[in-house]
Each structure stands twice: as structure tokens, then as C-alpha cells.
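Newbie here. two chains, one complex. Structure please?
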Amino acid sequence: MKTKSSVLASVLAWLAAFLSIAPFVYVLALSFLPASGGVTFHYYYQVFLGTSQYLTRFWKSLLICLCVVAGQLVVSILAGYGFAKCQFKGKNALLFLLMILMVLPLQVTLAPNYIMLDSLGLLDTYAALILPSIFAPLGTFILTQSFKSVSEDIVDAAKLDGCGLFRLLVKVVLPMNTSGLVCVTLLSFLDGWNMVEQPIAYLKDFMRYPISVALAYVPPADPTLQLVCCVLVVLPPLFLFTYFNRELVEGIVLAEMK
Amino acid sequence: MKKKVLCIFVLIFWLVGACTFLSQKVEKQMVAQVITLEPNGGMGSGSDTLPLECLMMGENGMTLYSLYEGTGWEAGTRVQEESGGWQIDEDGIKLESAWGTYVQYASKPLKSGEIVEQVLSGRPQPDHWLAVLPSEVELNELPEGVEIVEQSGSAVLFSVEKAMGVFMEAQAKTLIPQLYEAKVYSFGAMSQFLDNFTGLGQLLFLLGAALALWVGSCLFARKARQNRAVLVLNLAVGLVLLACVPLVLQSIDLPSSLLPRLHITDFGYYAQEMEEFFGSLLTFAPEASAQGYLAPNLPQSQVGQAIIQQRNITIARPFLYGAGGLALGALTALGEYCVLKVRRRPRIK
């Protein structure tokens, strides 16, 4: 009976894996097969050599994402440590507010952010994409949960040994929470890489659009070109997921267990 | 698993980085250069007539191209076929509306929607043109400043005193109408093309060195902890090589008239063009019996001999440089391996 159920489970797992990977395989296969028939590298030439538009936009998007990730890590580490290890008035209320913010759909915060960015004169700049993303609450939530796993005794011992806050974070707390950090890095990177609504709302100049938005405007005369762009777009997330997959799973499991 | 993923993606991102620099250059190089005309000198009132040379062979037969500004992904000055609004009469092409900018000459065949660069005729300079003819043509009345240097059954070498700065075949055919059916090459453009073989070789050198270093690094990555210093060094060298790509690309400037219509990597096209050009040049060479069988098979004109010599000197450079890059990268990796081996040798105190 146990064998039967394990076989069924593995079949279901394989089926789920196949269904997950099928769209990517489909995109990859069709990127070599144009509507006119045959196998061609013409569209790869178009995207990777024929014009610099796609690749420069790709690097710009990557730069935006790196800024988002760096900013969000700093904010999340400091805020997460504060929520997890510091005692102050209204902590629970603030954490509750953070969780409410986390469940709010993006579209709800779009208009207030637009008004704020407009009054700051940041509309139609990359800062309009980077700044709001830095303060996304998910990273703080994950790291709060992650930092709670660090024993108070260890923190106290480090303090007794003369560690300041910065040193305590860098030398003690962060090395013990690498999976949480990787998880935040990946999720914030994906948030930045896949952003669509924010660029459309905050940017006017098409040339500033990141590749996630510009992809939709690829000349639709031949869809194969769009598929090759999809292959280009999938490269950074694919790298991050294949490289950090173990830490990602651990990080999410850790956050769920708390 | 992590090491393999890192190795593969380092190469992928290096190549994507190199492609970014290359694509910027290719984009500039593949832009067709055009000389344009505005009816009524741009005043734009009433109908006007364009010269017949504005008609070009398009996808749907002879057509007239006008310029427009694209937006979004298609930003930039582009050409479009004018499907209506014009007709041919004895004076030329009669336009119904005198608005717009029309292409008179293009450095290569145009395609609707293609991005183009408007150029001026440039300062006239002396050049030589090689015309490859499908059949023998009478060339009695040549325009002023154009002389025949050498002639054989299927090819004619002209000396042109005042050629345009940017060579355009259609413009050459307008100057010498007898060449209407011929394929015309510019010696200036061919010489410029051959000059770029050194730059192309340097590019292949960078690619070869980076690839060899990458293979070496993948081998070192098996013991990543022990070889960390070497891996970091190789990564730094790889980044330096990547930074050298735009520097090398600056020195490359291929003539638009010798580039293929669609893909700059269409090597068959280049081989065909060079074969036709140099094959036709060799038809000027005297019979082997007339100059001794061991004498080199060369045309008599100095300019013909010079360009063949230039080809012989430069043709192998890309291959040599590429192989040199591979060898240097491999040697560097081997050197690093030897250094590590010597350093880790057990020492007896």
C-alpha cells in the first residue's frame, strides 16, 4: 500500500514538474521554429546581434533589480532585526500593519505612490521604480521570522563580548540566516525583474521601460521574436533559482515554520 | 551542482555582455546609408518631380522609398515604400504631393521599415571602380574624370577622379549609365573592408582567450576552495577581456556597400563578393605564356596589384589572431596550474 502511494506521489510530482517546465520548453523550442517553417537562428541574431535595443534594456533592467535587491536587503535586515530582537512600544501593532501592507494588492498602493513620487519630482526616472520597491514589506517579514530563530543567548553572549549592533548583525546574526537572506534576495529580485504595473504608471518615456514591460511592445509581426526575448528575460531568474534553489526552499520553509 | 551552474552562467553572461557591445556596433554598421531628396528643395508646395534614380528595386518590384520617424521599439529614421501618390512620366517621377523626404541613393538594397542613416555626398575623392559585366558593353563616351585603366571581356577597371565619399552603387551607375546591368565595386570600400580584418582578428583573439580561460576555470572549479585565488584572477582577466571588446570595436568600420542585406554574419556573402571581385581582377592578368609560367598571376595596374597584396596580407589575420587568443588563454591556464602544483609540493624542512 505504501509503495503504491509513493508511486502515485512520484507520478504526480513528475506530472506537476512537467506541467511547470512545459511552457519554458515550449518557448525554447518555438524560438527556433518560425511560423514560416524550418529551423532558424535568425531571431536569435536579431535579439543578440542585430540590434542593441534588447540587450541594453536587459542590462538596464538588471541594474534596476540589483539596486532594488541591495536597498531591500538593507531595509529588511535592519527592520527585521528590530522586529525580531528589539523591544519597543507598538512593535506588535507595527508588525500587524506590515502584514496588512503585505496582503494589500499592488494596485492599491500604485496611486498613493504616484502622488508621492510626483511631489518628489521623481516621476519618469528609475528612482520611481527603485524607491517604492526597496520598502516592500515581504523582505522584512521573512527576515523577522528568520531572525527570531537566533537564540537570545547567542545575541547576549556576543553583546557581552563587546559586539556593537553592526558587528552583531554582520558577524553573528546574518551568517546564521543565510537561507533567509537568499530567500529575500531572490524574491526581491523577482519582484523587480517582473515589475509591469509600476513602470507603466511611473514612466512615460518608452526608452526607460524595463524589459519586462518592453517585451509586450516587441513588434508583433513575428511572435518568434518575442519568444527569443522571453529566453533572454528568463536567464537571470533561471541562474538565481538554479544556483540558490536549496537556500530558497530552506528559507521559505523556515519562514512558514515560525 | 552550484559550481556547474556558476560556470555555465558566467560564460552565458560574458557572451551576453560581449553581444551587447557587438550589437551596438552591428546596429550602426548595418544601417543603410542613404542620400535623400526633398521635392521643391524642401519648400513643399504643389506637386514636384523626382529623378528616375529614386526608383529602387524593392520587395514588390520597382518602388519609391520615403523616410519616416519610428516610435517605440522602432524608434529612429526609417524607410517605407510609397505604394501610391506617384507616377512615372518623361521628366521623372511625378509626385501628387510634394511633402516628404525621398531616398535617391542607398548604400545597399532597402527593405520597408528598415532604419537608415542620411548622409551627404561627402567631399569628392579619387577612387577606382571595378565593374563586373554580364556581357560586353561599349564604353565609348565616359563622363569627365572617368578613365578606363584595364579591361577584359567581363570586367572593367575605372579610375574615377571625383568619386563620392560614401560609395553607392546606384550613384556610380548614374554616373556611368552603361554599367546599368553591372555589379560595381569600389576599391576604396574593398580596401577599407580588408583593413578591418585586423580588428576582427583582435575580436576573435579576445573571444578565444576568454573561452580558453573559461575552460581552464571550469577545471579549477572542481577544487574551488583550494583554487579560489586563481578563479578570482581568471574572472578579473575575463572582465578585462570583456572591457577590451568595445575598445577593439572602435577600430572597426566596415563599408556599408560590402555588407550583406540582412545578417552581418553571412560569411558566404563575403566569400562570394570577394571571389567575384578578386576573380574579376585576375581576368586583367596577361596570359601565363606571355610573361613566363612562373610569374605571379596579377593584373597590370598598380592599384590592382596593391589590393591583391593587401588581401594576401590581411586574409589570414582573423584565424591567426583567434588561434593566438585560444593558445594564450590555454597557456595562461596551464601556467596557473603549474604555479599551483609547485606551490603545493610538499616541502622538506
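Moderator note: The CA atoms of residues 58 and 211 of chain A lie 6 Å apart. The mean pLDDT of chain A is 87. Thread marked as resolved.
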